[in-house]
Amino acid sequence: MQKKRVVTSRDVAERAGVSQSAVSRCFSPKASISEKTRCKVLKAAKELGYRPNSIARSLITRSSRTIALVLSSLDNMFYPLVVAKASLRFQSEGYHLLLFVVPEDGDSSSVMDSILQSQVDGILMMSASLTSSLARECADSGIPVVLINRQVDFAGISQVYSDNYHGGFWVGSYLTMGGHERVAYLAGLESSSTSRHRYEGLVDGLASVGKRCHAIAYGDYDFECARAATQRLFAKPPYPDAIFAASDHMAIAVMETLRYELGYRVPEDVSVIGFDDTPIAAWPSYRLTTVRQPVDQMIEQATELLLKQIRQGDFHTESRVLPVTPILRHSARQPIRETVLD
User: Fold this and answer.
1) Of 6, 138, 201, 240, which is most buried by a Cβ count within 10 Å?
2) Strand pairing of 325-327 and 290-292?
3) What are the pLDDT digits (tens) for 51-65?
C-alpha cells in the first residue's frame, strides 16, 4: 500500500493563493493576519487535510510551546482545579502543559533531568519544593520558573502565592471569638511553606486574644494521613474543640472522622475550618467554613510572569502575594462578635 503524500504548507498556500508565510501566520497563535486571508487559508487546509507540524515548527523557532507543570499529587482537590484553569489559560496563548509528577515529599530533583530533556519553554511548579541548586540549574539552562502556591527564600525564582499568614490569623481570631478554648492545627507537609505560614498566622491570631495553639498534628495534605492524625488528636483528653486544617482536602477527612468514627457533631462538639475553598467545600454534606484562595488570579499572574520571561528572555523575578477571603458556612460555630481579616 502506497504511503499517502504529506500535505505541506506550500500546498495550502498554492490552493489559497497566498504566501507560505501567510499560512504560517494563520496557524501561529497571536500572529497578525487579516480575517479574509485566514478564512482562505483555513478553507484550503480543510480541503487538503492539512495539519501543521508542531515538531517541525519547534525546530525552526527553537520553541516547543510547551510548559512543564510540576506537582506532587492530584489527590488534593485544590490541584486538579488549578491544573484545569492553568491548562486553559496557557492554551489560549498557544502553549500546552506537559505534566510531571514528583514524589510525595515534593522533591523535584528526581524529574528535573526529564524536564530539561523535554525542551520545555518554561516551568510552572505547584506543590513541589525547589532547592537553590535546582533553581540555578534551570536558570543556567535558560528556562524560566514560576512557583505557584509556594514560597522560597532564595533569589532567581518568580512566585505567586496567597497571603497564608493572614488567612491563618483570621482563623485563630474567628475561632476564639466563637468561644473555643482548645484549637488544634492539622498541618500539611512539614517542609511546606504554605502550611508553615498558615500555622504562624494561626498562632498569632490566637495570641491576639490571649490564647495558645492546643495541639499540632501532621496530615501531609493526604486524606488517610489526616484521618489518622485526627484520631491521634482525640486519643486522650483534653480533646480539641476546634481544628484548623491546612487544606480543605484534610478538613473533609477531619469531618468524616469526627462524625463517623469518633461520634462527634460538627460544629456543635468540634468546629472545623479548612483552607482553599474547593468546590466540595460548598456541598450540603460539609458546608465547610474555609479560607478561599484566589485561584483565577493566581493562574493569571503566574501565566503573565512566565510568558513575560519566555518571550522577553527577561529573568527579572517577582514575588506576588494575593489576598485571601474568609468563607463562612456551617462547620464552625459562629463567633460571639464578628472579626475581620486585616
Assistant:
1) 240
2) antiparallel
3) 665 544 544 445 568
